[in-house]
Design goal:
Blueprint (H helix, E strand, L loop, with lengths): L4 H24 L4 H22 L2 H13 L1 H17 L8 H11 L12
Length: 118
């Protein structure tokens, strides 16, 4: 985010529109499967747009690689990035190094075994 007033206003408008669409989606959930499916597709498109906005190409490639090997963990990382973006806690873009650190922090603890030979 370069900080120009026009971009800030545009971002505010995007956030308001996303909130409105989410409220509409929540209101339409009881009205049938077709509108719920459309709301899901809209939410997915919003998530992809946020990821495109806040991740560099290399970071997106790394995230896609993680999603292919570990889909649940990849989704968790995506949700974390979207949450950080919506709360405004991301300054600039997340590059590959920052993505590595984020993945390391969110990675579940792996068990390590020490084998000693006698």
């Amino acid at each position: 985010m370069s900080g120009s007033p026009d971009e800030e206003k545009l971002e505010e408008l995007r956030q308001k529109k996303m909130e409105q669409l989410q409220e509409q989606a929540e209101g339409q959930q009881g009205q049938g499967g077709a509108s719920q499916e459309a709301a899901q597709q809209q939410a997915e498109a919003q998530k992809k747009a946020l990821l495109r906005q806040y991740l560099t190409d290399d970071a997106r490639k790394r995230l896609n690689t993680v999603k292919m090997s570990k889909p649940q963990f990849g989704e968790q990382v995506e949700r974390q990035v979207v949450t950080l973006a919506k709360s405004g806690r991301i300054q600039g873009k997340i590059d590959d190094d920052k993505m590595k650190k984020l993945l390391q922090e969110l990675k579940p603890d792996s068990k390590s075994f020490d084998i000693t030979r006698r």
